[in-house]
Design a protein that fits this description.
The chain is of the alpha+beta class. Helices cover 46% and strands 12% of the residues. A hairpin with a 5-residue loop joins strand 10 and strand 11. Helix 5 crosses helix 6. The radius of gyration is 26 Å and the shape is flat.
């Protein structure tokens, strides 16, 4: 008699838990419907893991994140939370197209497009969106066949989940302070915090990296007043990020996402808050001068001379400190709500009078230097804002003739630039010059002897997608004038398909590459 063979059990990935799923909710709230969506996530997770598990850099954690994202998408549609609907609406307004990358009119007969139920192209986009976390330095082609195959495989489960889903709570609604006990501004900021930290489509993927520079700034701010309290630092970060981070695939402030969500899916009680949300603005940290001070409001002046009305509502104890008097200087971050400005988070409220004058003079001097430098360089380069040259020596000769300035800063960086050839340069209106060694081959401008179509097809992507390489002004100029027409995403279909994909979506991809960034200084 032969021995019975031992059957090896199949290796099953660890189950997604309720806590993992609920972490995507506002305040990580738990609902009776949660286990249904956890079940959805656990059904699609093994399928995702099987398709991508062997791919370099594609970790089980990323597979779980992808599964949870799809379950959240279904939950969003069932509950009418409006996150996905807001994305599509904002995308149409911003770019004029119905959908990023894909032509929704070319749907398969199996899954005709309907934005009220799980859509094949929405699932395809979400798979692409999460898959790009594998290597943030590059962009996966949205037409990748593996993504399309996986989306086709997952669609029946997701449609069935939508059909079978129980009643599902949506986001918390905005209410009056009398009803909820929380002022409207803090309700708005709390929802923006959720969009930044937890929401499946808009959350910041690497919060530590995104806030690193701002954290250093807050350390210096607190140190200047001899405050080493970690809780003060945490409050400053938790207050500032929700109102200033550029998030999600559109790289816009959370309050713009929220305004669109409420506009599309608001309860009757929220109708009156729509104008407030649509007019909401935020200013990063800037120096101000107190012009007039009253009990219920004061007038601030910024470095450009603009006057702003400030409310005491977010000040300690809801009133202005007795030390706040006309002439004093403040360093504040502000948010405008319902026509008045409020301090957001922490600020230095009482600084010496002369500090504002010094900062304004430095601001004006810098602006004049920028203008003069820009005008000088435009003349030196024959009114051509963008151009190429064979070497750094040639560039310096063009810019400064026989009197080049002495180099300041990182000597190794300057050595690298001096040794590099095929320079691409761009004159920014702030007087700085973006110099990209080796990129002259990428930009198709008149009389460019270095242009190389093959190099341009792959290296040209970096000019748009690597925001540390080029300025926003430079990218806009290149996009507007169509100067990188051969830049292409890698494509298994054909080089031409990759080129068309990139060129058609270049503006969206430029914005997308700026996601999770956070400006924190203005006019300083």
């Amino acid at each position: 008699m032969s021995k019975s063979k031992k059957i090896k059990p199949a290796i099953t990935p660890y189950k997604i838990t309720r806590l993992e799923f609920c972490a995507t909710h506002f305040n990580a709230a738990q609902f009776p419907s949660d286990m249904f969506y956890v079940g959805v996530a656990n059904r699609v997770y093994p399928v995702i893991h099987k398709v991508f598990g062997a791919q370099p850099g594609f970790t089980p954690a990323l597979s779980r994140h992808m599964a949870i994202t799809l379950a959240c998408y279904v939950e969003d549609l069932v509950a009418g939370s409006g996150v996905w609907a807001a994305f599509i609406s904002l995308y149409k307004k911003k770019y004029g197209n119905s959908f990023p990358f894909y032509n929704i009119r070319e749907q398969t007969s199996l899954f005709p497009y309907d934005d009220e139920i799980p859509s094949f192209h929405a699932v395809l986009f979400l798979l692409w969106y999460v898959a790009n976390e594998v290597n943030p330095e590059s962009i996966l082609n949205p037409g990748n066949p593996a993504l399309r195959m996986l989306a086709m495989t997952l669609m029946p489960d997701l449609i069935k989940a939508y059909d079978d889903a129980p009643d599902t709570p949506a986001r918390p609604i905005l209410m009056s302070e009398e009803e909820l006990g929380i002022p409207l501004f803090y309700q708005i900021r709390n929802l923006c915090s959720w969009l930044c930290s937890s929401c499946y489509l808009t959350r910041i993927n690497d919060m530590d990296e995104s806030i690193n520079e701002f954290e250093n700034f807050i350390d210096q701010l607190l140190h200047s007043v001899e405050n080493e309290d970690e809780s003060a630092k945490a409050y400053a970060i938790d207050s500032f990020v929700p109102m200033n981070a550029l998030i999600g695939p559109l790289a816009i402030p959370a309050y713009e996402w929220l305004a669109e969500i409420v506009d599309l899916y608001h309860e009757p009680e929220e109708e009156r808050y729509l104008p407030i949300l649509k007019a909401l603005k935020s200013r990063p940290y800037e120096y101000y001068r107190y012009k007039t001070v009253g009990e219920s409001e004061l007038i601030l002046e910024d470095l450009n001379g603009e006057k702003l009305t400030l409310s005491p509502d977010t000040m300690p104890d809801g009133r202005f400190s007795p030390e706040i008097v006309p002439g004093k200087t403040a360093l504040l971050s502000l948010v405008q709500v319902d026509g008045v400005w409020m301090m957001n988070g922490l600020g230095l409220q009482v600084l010496p009078e002369e500090l504002f004058d010094e900062c304004r003079e430095a601001h004006r001097k810098k602006a004049k230097e920028h203008k003069d430098t820009y005008n000088y360089l435009m003349k030196a380069f024959n009114n051509r804002r963008i151009g190429v040259c064979g070497s750094h020596e040639e560039y310096m000769k063009m810019a400064f003739g026989d009197n080049p300035p002495k180099a300041n800063g990182d000597s190794k960086l300057f050595d690298d630039i001096r040794d590099a050839g095929n320079l691409l340069y761009f004159l920014n209106t702030d007087g700085t010059v973006s110099v990209l060694p080796g990129y002259a081959t990428c930009v198709k401008i008149k009389d460019n002897p270095y242009y190389d179509k093959e190099c341009a097809s792959h290296d040209g992507l970096a000019i748009i997608l690597n925001h540390s390489l080029s300025t926003a002004e430079m990218r806009e100029y290149i996009i507007k004038n169509k100067l990188i027409p051969d830049a292409a995403l890698s494509s298994v279909s054909s080089p031409e398909a990759g080129r068309k994909m990139f060129q058609k979506n270049i503006r969206f991809l430029n914005d997308y590459a700026g996601r999770d960034s956070m400006p924190f200084l203005r006019g300083i």
